[in-house]
Every structure is written in C-alpha cells, then in structure tokens.
Design a protein that fits this description.
Organism: Paenimyroides aestuarii
Family: Belongs to the ABC transporter superfamily.
Domain ABC transporter: 86-319
CATH architecture of the largest domain: 3-Layer(aba) Sandwich
CATH superfamily of the largest domain: P-loop containing nucleotide triphosphate hydrolases
Structural class: alpha/beta
Shape: globular
Protein name: ABC transporter ATP-binding protein
Bound molecules: adenosine-5'-triphosphate
Distance between the termini: 47 Å
Radius of gyration: 23 Å
Helix content: 40-55%
Pfam family, one: ABC_tran
Length: 383
C-alpha cells in the first residue's frame, strides 16, 4: 500500500467510526495531494452539499467514502524523504546596547518536519523566526537554504520561504477575491484558479466565510485566511509567529492538527516552525521542540527516551499536601511543589507512572487532572 493509499485508509477509518469532522479534513488532504482537477471539483461539490445538508450525516459519510475510493485510485508520487531545506549554524543576535542576546543556535530542518518554538514573552522567538525568514540579519552565524528550484529573485525567495507575523496587514474586498488574486498573480492556469482556491477554502474551514471582508472575520479566521493565501503559493518553509494567539483551546488543537496534516502532504511536504506559548498543544504535533530561555537554546526531541530522567507528574486535586505525601509514602518521591493551582511531584527514574495512578486511585481522593510531564517541555516551566 502506498503512503497516499494509507492516508486514504485513515480517512475511511474515521468515517467508519463516525468521526466525520476529522475524516472530512483528512479526505480534503488526500484530495489535495492528487493535484487532479476532477477530484478537486468532486471534493468542492461535496463540501457544498455537506454545508447545505448538515443533518444528513449518513448520506454524507456514504458520499465521502465513495469519493475516497476514487481518490485512492489516483497515483500520488511520494516526495523524497528527509529533504533538507534549512541549515542554521551558530546563529546569534544582539540588539545594540540591549541586554538581550540570542543564541548561539544551530538547527537543521527537513520538509515535512514540524518544529515548535516555545518560551515565555521576550525570550527571542520572534527574533529567531525573523532571522530564519531573512527579515533581519544575524549578528553571527550562517544560514543555508536548499529549495527544490533555483532562487533567482527576492520574489522567488518570498514564495518558497514564508513568514507570517503575529499581526498581519488589513486587506480589502472579499476573502475569496483575495485568494483568486494570489493565484492570478502567481501565474496559475486561469481555468484552474477557481477550483484550487475553492478547495483551499474548504480545507481551511473557510467555506462559510468566503464572501466576508477583513473586518467581518475573527482573528482566528484571519489567521486561517493568511494560511490559505500562503499555502496556495506552495511554500517549502513556513514560519508562523504565534498562530495560536487569540484562539480557544479547541480551535488551537484543530489548527495545529490541520497544520501538521498539511505539512505532511505525501507529494508536497512543507517544513514548519511555529512559535507559541501553548506548550502542551505544540509539543503534541512537533517533531522537535526548541525551548528558548533568555535567548538561550535548549533542543529537545519529543521522542527523547532517557532512562535517567525522573518521573514528574502534575496533579490537580483538592487533597492537601499531607494527604499526597501519605499516598506516596512508599514511593521514591524526591520533591512535591505547589504553585497555588496544581501540585508537581518528582520521583526517581525507576518509578512507574501507572503505579502512581493506582496509588492516587486507591486513595479515593478527588482528582480533576493528572499528567506525566517527564518528557514535556513543561518541566522547564514548573521550576
Ligand atoms: N528591533 C529590536 N530592537 C531592539 N530590541 C529588540 C528588537 N526586537 C526585539 N528586541 C528585544 O529582544 C528581546 C526578544 O524579543 P522577541 O520579540 O524576539 O521575543 P519573543 O519570545 O518573540 O517575545 P513575545 O512572545 O513577547 O513576542 C526582547 O527583550 C525585545 O525587547
């Protein structure tokens, strides 16, 4: 089975389990990968039908699965794996007389990879993104890009390497007209412009907003519009500064999942770095988390497996410190801290999370939340 067929299978599976919302977004990803205008038109027609018949879930599911069968028949040539696009060596940056200094930072980024850039306010996230985007020059260090086609002008570079800042400019006219304009300017075949734009609108959840103007969109939808506008130009590196700002938790999760899926396209993968203060959400979808503190870099792979690492658990409970100490009496508990909201318990590396859960469950205390943060970037924030 090819990787394209596997992605199609996943989408079918979501429909089989009645997760139609997610399944449909996966269907649109697979449709997009085909680059086949008949499939695009079918997916657009299905989006329109779904919006007009929101209650007919069974019929919608059947129609979606029928289209997925068609999509699976189309050959999608996979992009070559580990395609390195960016290599940064010993980047540093200082601003005149300011105390702040960034780096040295070295990193390599390949297509399809997602890096999360986390840190509290003023720790250098925007500075790093702007250096990587070639918006500002580093004080020291080197940057190398390797795009699929030769870069002959600044315009070429701005198509392949796209930076979306926290605050974006106002635009005029409708969302749809603005997207049509992007592709018209970009030299896309006129007969394909409408189809490509409408599929992107569908994929980014903008279908019911396509006739709205800038002032009529919420900030979350303005960000989605910026993404649509950017993705139509098929970037190879995408740098997003705080795309989650102003979004509620559910909307954050959805946009992150969407970004991950879009960047993992079978034939057109994108390298993505996004900055955020939402650690849990970002590390869930990141291949690597870059943690910046006072401009200093701490690389962490989320799959990191260090047997020496202590077990660290966050616990939200109405139980007292004494009760918790007594529950963990026979555990190798090295530290128990309270930040006024949640407790953080530190155990030696041999302690199993499952044993801690059993002890808390057996004690029958009120618990609203428990999380193993041993491998999470969050552990750097709780100290
Ligand atoms: N153009 C500039 N001139 C002088 N100092 C700057 C400039 N841009 C940023 N700084 C300083 O560099 C430091 C890092 O800022 P930066 O915006 O990169 O951090 P950040 O992690 O993105 O923060 P935030 O989340 O608040 O945007 C801050 O102390 C900031 O005041």
């Amino acid at each position: 089975m090819t990787s394209h067929q596997q992605r199609v299978q996943e989408a079918v599976h979501f429909f089989d389990n009645n997760d139609t919302f997610l399944g449909f977004r996966k269907l649109l990803d697979c449709a997009m990968d085909t680059q086949n205008m008949h499939i695009y038109q079918d997916a657009i027609a299905l989006t329109d039908w779904k919006e007009k018949n929101p209650k007919e879930i069974e019929t919608f599911s059947a129609k979606a699965k029928e289209l997925l069968e068609k999509i699976a028949q189309i050959h999608v040539e996979p992009h070559k794996a580990n395609d390195l696009v960016l290599q940064a060596n010993d980047l540093t940056k200082s601003y005149g007389s300011q105390k702040f200094s960034l780096g040295p930072i070295s990193l390599t980024l390949s297509k399809g990879q997602v890096f999360g850039l986390v840190g509290e306010n003023g720790n250098g996230k925007t500075t790093l993104l702007r250096i990587l985007a070639k918006e500002i020059a580093p004080t020291n260090g080197t940057l190398r890009y390797q795009f699929s086609t030769k870069i002959q002008s600044d315009y070429d570079l701005r198509t392949k390497l796209i930076y979306i800042p926290q605050r974006t400019d106002k635009w005029y006219g409708s969302l749809l007209d603005n997207l049509r304009f992007v592709l018209a300017n970009y030299g896309e075949r006129p007969e394909e412009i409408e189809t490509r734009v409408l599929l992107m609108v569908a994929r980014l959840g903008l279908w019911n907003y396509k006739h709205l103007k800038w002032s009529e969109l919420s900030s979350g939808y303005k960000m989605r519009f910026e993404l649509a506008r950017t993705l139509l130009r098929k970037p190879e590196i995408l740098l997003l500064d705080e795309p989650l700002a102003n979004l509620d938790v559910l909307a954050q999760q959805i946009i992150l999942e969407d970004l991950k899926a879009i960047c993992n396209s079978v034939n057109n993968p994108i390298a993505l770095i996004l900055s955020s203060q939402q650690l849990f959400e970002v590390e869930k979808i990141s291949d690597k988390v870059i943690f910046l503190k006072n401009g200093q870099y701490n690389p962490l792979t989320t799959a990191e497996n260090d047997s020496e690492k202590p077990l660290i658990i966050e616990i939200d409970t109405s139980a007292s410190r004494e009760e918790l100490l007594s529950i963990f009496e026979n555990f190798a508990l090295t530290k128990l801290t309270f930040n006024g909201g949640v407790y953080t318990a530190y155990f030696n590396a041999e302690t199993l999370f499952s044993n801690a859960i059993v002890a808390l469950g057996t004690a029958n205390i009120q618990l609203t939340y428990i999380r193993d943060i041993s491998a999470s970037t969050r552990r750097f924030f709780v100290n």
